[in-house]
Amino acid sequence: MTGKSTLIRETLRDAVIFDLLSSDDFFPLIANPKSLENAILQDTEIVVIDEIQKAPQLLDEVHRLIETRKVRFLLTGSSARKLRRGGVNLLGGRAETIHFHPLLARELGDDFNLGRALRYGTLPFVYMSEEPRQTLRNYVGTYLQEEIAAEGSVRNLPAFARFLDLAAHCNATIVNFANLASDAQVPRTTVHGYFEILRDTLILFELPALRQVSRRKPTVKSKYYFFDIGVATAIQKQGSHRLMQREGFSFETWLLHELRSWIDYSDRDEKLQYWKSQSGYEVDFLIGDHTAIEVKAKSHVGNRDLRSLRALMDEHSFKNHICVCLESRSLHREGIDILPFDVFLENLWEGAYS
């Protein structure tokens, strides 16, 4: 629901499009995959198959048409789970993968409002909705029904719903799987499987820890983030727990979305990590080996807020040390740039950090 189908309809008006959410397209192709070739004219430049995970068996026919007729395909999907689980034809490396994300601040332009983004996220149909809270509730219900239940990913949907609520409260944290399994009333192995489902359906992102440090012993466990802060908050509101996301975690999750989008859309070969020492220092995001970012949802950043960045400066030679915050102007202290979020994002897209 990040806008893939809308973008295709608006920009590829001459393409042949098969929408597998439509029964008119789905059932004929499932019954006879070779009918795909009959619908493609000789002068067709590109063929779109929307939601390819609904019919992974079509990939054999796609592969054949690429080889025999040099047809160009654009395949979209919202889950890699069914494709990998079925051991289907993944086109032998002939396909390039592009990740599509919720809206960015720069895409929204003058329509961007940080408060609205942190409260409801930036999924297009939610951000533009007149009833974003209800739209998010509907989204969560649809996800449980269609992506999980319909695909048969879990046998116990009530248990998964309990887990999902708990997982949303673990957003932007290191997860204690044993405690989570106990609270969800399922075995620990089941919780690990549930996390795999969230990753495969692109709902959850795993942020690994930096391990190569010289002095302080690091934490090596990953942190987990929902792909959209609005979705995480909506799940929390629907679940049995009533603890809400703190503003800092919301701001942090939103900024991670901006960073991941920048990496994917700029086609950069960059790895995102975080750093945490066992003595308690923590820096939220590390881009490659050059930029360390601490995120503070504060309009005034004090010296204590920079202690983790200073500790990392003693551990690792990053080129850029940045605190992204809600300050009204840019500051510089002891090798650390303190930047309003909009200034940081502008610098990021202009290529200031490498």
Q: Helix count, per DSSP?
A: 16
What would you call the shape? Answer: globular
Total DSSP E strands: 12
Proportion of helical residues: 40-55%
**Mean pLDDT across all amino acids:** 87
Beta-strand content estimate: 5-15%
Largest sheet: 6 strands, mixed
Terminal CA distance reads: 31 Å
Rg value: 22 Å
Could you characterize what this model shows?
The protein is α/β, with parallel strands linked by helices and 354 residues long. It is built from 16 helices and twelve strands. The strands form three sheets. The protein has a six-stranded mixed beta sheet with strand order 7-8-9-10-12-11, with helices on both faces. Strands 1-2-3 form a three-stranded parallel beta sheet, with helices on one face. A hairpin with a 5-residue loop joins strand 7 (272-276) and strand 8 (282-287). Helix 7 (114-120) crosses helix 13. The protein is globular and about 65 Å long. Residues 240-245 have low confidence and may be disordered.
Features of the shown structure:
alpha/beta, 16 helices, 6-stranded mixed sheet
